[in-house]
């Protein structure tokens, strides 16, 4: 029996039968017209399966246009017909027409507007960061540039131990870069971090900030905000080398369109030695004072006193270290935005000249177990201040989607607490303790 060939509606049933019986001639015009007439019926016309005849007819009989009749099957099998092509075409036109009509008449479904973080990302990608860019983008670009410079300089002190660099993002926008070195030859732990944060301030936070920033709208329930900062903490291996801390930051609040309505700068740097070398303290403070004096001669004494007050441990009744400068909430009431940005940049640029000569001088000095234990005790005080009193640590840990590892990067790798420990009279340990209880003026 010949294999059954699939039916193609556009050929027609007559052509199909000719193909089934291996006929090569087309059906006659009357028969084709009769077929088309039946195709206009709204109901499909099923036809029965037929069994082809295999015969040895003559060549002349093969040219006969009449179709042979095949015996019907003993049992009639049900066959599902196919709708006529004209009806299929008409239904398709109706469906397509309704779809096109709904596209033009239905209201547009607008997607969610891009966030401020998304718009800033697009702006940086398309136009870069220039002097005309918003301050938040300029501050972000500056701290990332200085982070690379500082890490490269510290890496030269200990090429064998590479900084680990982690780049991370925040779901609400922003992210940061954490560069950390642990158990090195020079630093027990060193961290240089940049952090970019986009978020929304609740009503309670807005009310607290309005105490120092009257430009913030008091009638809103929430505000968009942006924060960018560079934080650095270096804990040396050698007890003769001092720990150093640095942080410079920028904060602004915005409306939904990203327009800034309040802004301020903050930051500072301070030195925390375990053993006091006066020349180190003088050099460190002089570098800071020179940077301050370029902008306002009243800055250094004012911000030095602010630093002594801020880094004070009330329950120990002593300072964390020998100070430096600290300032916060510097806004339009202080100076204009460009002047304060220039001040912050000069302070940050002064860090490497102020600290590198000290660490290079002290990192290879001899020390013993006694000096190492004293260093661990002083680091215990450092931990107490950071976890109990530091506002930056508290703000970071309470920020949604905070990266805890980057926030606690400031803590030393090791610390020590001893019950009722007191420094010996006349010892080097007693001298640094007395200075911490009564800060000195170094320059």
Give structural notes:
- The chain has 443 residues and is an alpha+beta fold.
- It is 41% helix and 18% strand.
- The chain contains 15 helices and nine strands.
- The protein has helices spanning 13-20, 29-39, 59-62, 85-105, 116-127, 135-157, 203-209, 278-293, 299-310, 337-349, 351-362, 369-388, 391-397, 404-407, 428-437; strands spanning 164-169, 174-182, 187-201, 223-236, 243-254, 260-272, 312-313, 318-319, 323-330.
- The strands form two sheets. A seven-stranded antiparallel beta sheet has the order 1-2-3-4-5-6-9. Strands 7-8 form a two-stranded antiparallel sheet.
- Strand 1 and strand 2 (174-182) form a beta hairpin.
Globally, the shape reads elongated
Largest sheet: 7 strands, antiparallel
What's the helix count?
15
Cross-sheet strand order for the largest sheet: 1-2-3-4-5-6-9
Indicate the percent of residues in helices: 40-55%
Structural class: alpha+beta
* Succession of helices and strands: HHHHHHEEEHEEEHHEEEHHHHHH
Describe this structure in a few short sentences:
By secondary structure, this protein is an alpha+beta fold. The protein is built from 15 helices and 9 strands.
Task: Show the helix and strand layout.
Elements: H1 13-20, H2 29-39, H3 59-62, H4 85-105, H5 116-127, H6 135-157, E1 164-169, E2 174-182, E3 187-201, H7 203-209, E4 223-236, E5 243-254, E6 260-272, H8 278-293, H9 299-310, E7 312-313, E8 318-319, E9 323-330, H10 337-349, H11 351-362, H12 369-388, H13 391-397, H14 404-407, H15 428-437
Antiparallel strand pairs: 1-2, 2-3, 3-4, 4-5, 5-6, 6-9, 7-8
Helix pairs in contact: 6-10, 8-11
């Amino acid at each position: 029996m010949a294999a059954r060939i699939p039916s193609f509606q556009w050929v027609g049933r007559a052509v199909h039968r000719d193909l089934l019986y291996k006929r090569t001639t087309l059906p006659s015009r009357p028969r084709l017209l009769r077929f088309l007439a039946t195709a206009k019926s709204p109901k499909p016309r099923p036809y029965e399966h037929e069994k082809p005849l295999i015969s040895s007819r003559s060549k002349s009989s093969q040219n006969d246009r009449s179709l042979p009749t095949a015996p019907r099957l003993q049992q009639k099998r049900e066959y599902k017909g196919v709708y006529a092509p004209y009806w299929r075409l008409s239904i398709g036109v109706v469906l397509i027409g309704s779809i096109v009509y709904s596209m033009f008449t239905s209201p547009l479904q607008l997607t969610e507007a891009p966030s401020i973080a998304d718009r800033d990302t697009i702006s940086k990608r398309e136009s870069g960061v220039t002097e005309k860019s918003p301050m938040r983008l300029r501050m972000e670009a500056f701290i990332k540039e200085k982070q690379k410079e500082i890490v490269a300089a510290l890496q030269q002190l200990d090429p064998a131990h590479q900084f680990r660099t982690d780049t991370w993002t925040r779901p609400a926008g922003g992210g940061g870069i954490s560069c950390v070195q642990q158990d090195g030859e020079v630093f027990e732990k060193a961290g240089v971090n940049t952090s970019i944060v986009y978020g929304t301030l609740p009503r309670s936070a807005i009310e607290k900030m309005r105490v120092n920033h009257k430009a913030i709208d008091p009638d809103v329930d929430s505000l968009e905000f942006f924060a960018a900062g560079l934080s650095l903490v270096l804990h040396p291996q050698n007890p003769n080398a001092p720990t150093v801390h640095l942080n410079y930051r920028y904060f602004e609040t915005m409306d939904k369109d990203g327009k800034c309505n309040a802004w301020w700068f903050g930051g500072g740097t301070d030195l925390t030695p375990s053993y006091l070398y006066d020349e180190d303290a003088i050099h460190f403070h002089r570098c800071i004072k020179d940077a301050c004096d370029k902008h306002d001669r009243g800055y250094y004494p004012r911000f030095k006193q602010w630093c002594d007050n801020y880094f004070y441990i009330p329950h120990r009744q002593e300072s964390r270290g020998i100070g430096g400068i600290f300032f916060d909430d510097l806004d339009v009431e202080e100076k204009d935005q460009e002047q304060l940005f220039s001040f912050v940049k000069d302070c940050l640029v002064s860090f490497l000249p102020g600290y590198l000569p000290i660490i290079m001088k002290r990192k290879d000095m001899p020390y013993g177990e006694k000096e190492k234990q004293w260093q661990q005790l002083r680091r215990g005080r450092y931990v107490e201040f950071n976890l109990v009193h530091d506002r930056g640590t508290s703000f970071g840990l309470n920020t949604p989607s905070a990266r805890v590892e980057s926030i606690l990067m400031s803590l030393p790798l090791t610390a020590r607490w001893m019950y009722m420990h007191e420094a010996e009279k006349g010892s080097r340990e007693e001298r640094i303790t007395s200075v911490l209880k009564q800060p000195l003026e170094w320059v």
